[in-house]
Design brief:
alpha+beta; 2 domains; five-stranded antiparallel beta sheet; globular
Length: about 210
């Protein structure tokens, strides 16, 4: 088998095209008729999804420069927990009145409850960091995620599309300059996350200006 036809030679993650654009490889599969190995990837900045033969994906247009270069491994984590589904199950069993069907603002009492819960768990997490206590830190992170996801559920927000949009915007910073303190700055053509658009797709109606 040629190394250019081995699906294992491409891992999920973020790749830089030789012309500069950034893409995320989201899968490697086979074309249904020819069974040719193909790579499925999408543009980080535009969101367009593309399919390219594996051997072409791994090739070099000039015999020297790779067509695609891995810059950040990772991508989709197929076995990662569905945090929001877990917390939604808890809310459905314990407090179904704290679940909204579509994105909506919180009532004053719900604002206070969610703010108190978030503050409590974040303070405990910060204390664990200060004390350099790893088990308490892990517990604090999980508890903070739990109450934050609960807040999304109370506000009727499906956080997964929001997360993907924020991830797209963050990964688009990879081509930006690095500040002296190590912070990655935004490139000139960077486009921020369109959170309004994501919430509107979920049924949110923006307040009239």
């Amino acid at each position: 088998m040629s190394p250019y036809s081995d699906p294992a030679s491409v891992s999920l993650g973020f790749y830089r095209h030789f012309k500069g654009a950034l893409y995320e490889v989201i899968g490697v599969g086979k074309e249904t008729t020819s069974l040719q190995a193909v790579v499925v990837y999408r543009s980080v900045t535009e969101g367009n999804v593309w399919i390219r033969p594996l051997d072409e994906f791994l090739s070099s247009p000039d015999g020297n420069t790779p067509r695609f270069t891995l810059v950040a491994p990772g991508g989709l984590m197929l076995e990662s927990p569905d945090f929001q589904a877990d917390v939604a199950a808890f809310h459905a069993a314990m407090c179904p009145d704290q679940m909204a069907a579509t994105p909506s603002t919180l009532s004053p009492s719900m604002q206070k409850l969610r703010a108190d819960l978030i503050r409590e768990e974040c303070d405990e997490t910060l204390d664990a960091i200060q004390d350099n206590d790893l088990p308490r830190l892990a517990d604090g992170i999980a508890d903070a995620i739990y109450v934050l996801m609960g807040t999304a559920i109370a506000a009727g927000i499906d956080i997964s599309p929001v997360w993907r949009e924020v991830q797209r915007a963050n990964m688009a910073k990879l081509s930006g300059p690095i500040r002296a303190d190590g912070k990655r700055l935004k490139p000139a053509d960077w486009r921020g996350p369109d959170i309004d658009g994501v919430l509107t797709a979920q049924g949110w109606v923006a307040p009239a200006e």
